[in-house]
Amino acid sequence: MLALLRPLLAACLCLLAPGARGRSPARGDGFHYQDISDGNGKGEIYFNGVRLHVETPRLSVSATRGSSVTLPCHFRYEPELSAPRRTRVKWSWLPANAVAAPVAPEAFARETEVMVAVGDRHRSYGSFRGRVRLRRSSPGDMSLVITELRLNDTGRYRCEVIDGLEDESVTVELELRGVVFPYYSPRGRYRFNFFEAQQACQDQEATLATFEQLFSAWEDGLDWCNAGWLADGTVQYPITAPRASCGGLDLAPGLRSYGQRHRHFYRYDAFCFSASLKGTVYYLKQQTKLNFTDASKACVGDGGRIATVGHLYAAWRLAGLDRCDAGWLADGSVRYPITKARANCGPPEPGVRSFGFPPPNMNFGVYCYR
């Protein structure tokens, strides 16, 4: 609307006689104003002749868990100003499980404030408090630096620059490099409602995967014929090799979707997402195999703790962990990671092999995290 009014306001200036009520107030800030407060009764003042631009060179940025990342955002004026102005900058965030493209106006109301800055003063909010700052490497640089990245930091970030009535913004998507893995309850298949699936993933140092993360995993070859919850409340599963028992032979490869399901009443498995870790996952060398209780104690005695399923998948995919020895994990399952398939180490494809949830008094090795 402001862009449409500029030509009209410029034309009005030529028609106003000296001393008329619609005069242009003199201001020493490098802007030219048209005061139409007498005309509409709202006291509004519009900029004329100077335009604010907010830009980013990258629409998406990817990083690893625990690292720092910079979301680029710059602003400039056209034409350039002779003197800098005091601007207000607001960064806000729409979590990955709420993002839907294209950006809808109603999505703005769901955004959470990350940081607000005016001049040298700034304030950060919520889980971002103490973890964010503006880069300010050059004039107009309002790029957001986030430290100690967390699994839940993914989503769409909005950089909004406000100068008087000028208000322009740009968005940047933040993604974490990681791995998607299917997860089911020790009690059997299809035991989680949505909220239980969320908690199950959190217990494994992971989060519910987004549609984009599951789609990317499918592109990398993930094939799983059991439906699982995603972060947006839909239920889906990835198929690379169509077969009768997984949606039918006539359907093309892709993600099979049940759509939205009631989050309390319906029960499925879960697709979790785990990103890289600061610590190390390793197979504890022991003289003898251990039951589950002794395996947990052995990791603590070695200065660590028993690894989670999320730890093991992240170490397999992102750190190349390859070990043909089955070991206990924190949820009571027994698994082992294979990056180079070979004889006597399971199927011919790389992956994390699972023995399910054997009785806790059985003896296996153990994977620890430190």
From TrEMBL:
What are the alphabetically sorted keywords of the record? Disulfide bond, Extracellular matrix, Hyaluronic acid, Immunoglobulin domain, Repeat, Secreted, Signal
Q: Which GO terms describe its molecular function?
A: hyaluronic acid binding
Q: Where is the Link domain?
A: 179-274, 279-370
Among CDD domains, the record links this protein to:
Ig_LP_like, Link_domain_HAPLN_module_1, Link_domain_HAPLN_module_2
Pfam families tied to this protein: V-set (PF07686), Xlink (PF00193)
Instruction: Provide the leader sequence positions.
Output: 1-22
Source organism, top-level taxon: Eukaryota
- Provide the primary localization: secreted
InterPro entries (alphabetical): C-type_lectin-like/link_sf (IPR016186), CTDL_fold (IPR016187), Hyaluronan_bind_Proteoglycan (IPR050691), Ig-like_dom (IPR007110), Ig-like_dom_sf (IPR036179), Ig-like_fold (IPR013783), Ig_sub (IPR003599), Ig_V-set (IPR013106)
Question: Example GO biological process term?
Answer: skeletal system development
What name does UniProt use for this protein?
Hyaluronan and proteoglycan link protein 3
Tell me which species this is from.
Answer: Gasterosteus aculeatus aculeatus
